[in-house]
UniProtKB/TrEMBL annotation, chain A:
This is VIT family protein. The lineage of its organism: Bacteria, Pseudomonadati, Pseudomonadota, Gammaproteobacteria, Cellvibrionales. Keywords: Membrane, Transmembrane, Transmembrane helix. The chain crosses the membrane at residues 20-40, 52-74, 109-132, 144-163, 175-192. The keyword Membrane applies. It comes from Pseudohalioglobus lutimaris.
UniProtKB/TrEMBL annotation, chain B:
It comes from Pseudohalioglobus lutimaris. The lineage of its organism: Bacteria, Pseudomonadati, Pseudomonadota, Gammaproteobacteria, Cellvibrionales. This is DUF4911 domain-containing protein. It comes from the Bacteria. It holds the Pfam family DUF211. Transmembrane segments: none annotated. InterPro entries: DUF211 (IPR003831), MTH889-like_dom_sf (IPR023129).
Amino acid sequence: MSPLRRINRLLSVSDSHGILRRYLVVNGFDGALAMLGLIIGFLVSEPAELDMVTNACLATAIALGMSGVSSAYVSEVAERKRELGRLEDSMISDLGESAHGRAARWVPVLVAVVNGGAPLVISLLIILPLWLVQAGFSLPVAPLYLAGAVAGLMICVLGMLLGRIADVSWVRSGLQTLLVAAVTVALIYLLTG
Amino acid sequence: MVTVKRLVLDVLKPHQPGALYFCQHIARLGDDYQVCLSVEEVDENTQTLQLEIRGASIVLESIEKAIAEMGASLHSIDLVEVHNEADKP
C-alpha cells in the first residue's frame, strides 16, 4: 500500500479527515491574519529596516508553527488514547496492534503537522516578497504592501476553500473572509494611527 | 486432500473500517474468495456481523489475522464446510 493510501486508511479508521480540514483552515487563517496584523503594524510605524521586519515576521511564523504542533499533538494524543480505551472496552480486546492502535499513535502526529504546518507555510508565503527584495530582486510594488496583498489573497483562498468544503458559494465565502481581513486592517489603523 | 470450502463466522467489529472495506479486505486474501457480510446487531461503538466466505481452499489463519488487523474479533465459527478431494495422480 502506498504511503498516501496508508495515511488515508488511518484517517478513515479514526474518522479524522474532518478535523484535519478544520485545523488546516482555522490555523492557516490564524497565521495569515497574524502576519497581516504584523505587516500593517510595521506600515503604520516609523520605517524599519527590512531585515528587522523579516526577522520579526519569521519569528512569529515559527512561534505559530511550534504552538500549533505542540498544542495539537498533546491534545490529540490524549483524545485518541481515550477513544481507543473506550473501543477496547466495547470490543473486550487489546487493539494495540490493529489499525485502530496504529491510528491512535500516528493520527496525532498528522494532526500536529497540519495544525503547525498550515500557519507556518502560509506565513512564509506571505513574507516571500520581503525575502525576494533582501535577495536582490526588484519588485514593482513596495515589499510590505506586496506582502499585505499576499496575506489578503491567502485569506481569500482559505475562505474559498471553506466554501468548497461546506458546499456553499466559494466566491461569497472568499469575500466574507476578505471582509474579515479588511475589518482587521481598519481596526489596526483606527487604534494605532 | 481436505480443503475448507465454506465458513460462517460470528465477528464483532468497530464501526470503522466500514462493512464494504471489511469485506473487500477479506476477499483479497484469496483469488476466488466470495465474501458475504450480514450485520446482525449495532450498538454505539460496535457491530456484530455474520461473515460467510466461500472458496476453493479457504485459509482460516489469514482470515483471523486480517480480522484482528482491522480491529475486529472473531467470536465463533458457526459453520464449516470441508471437502475431502482425492489428490490428482
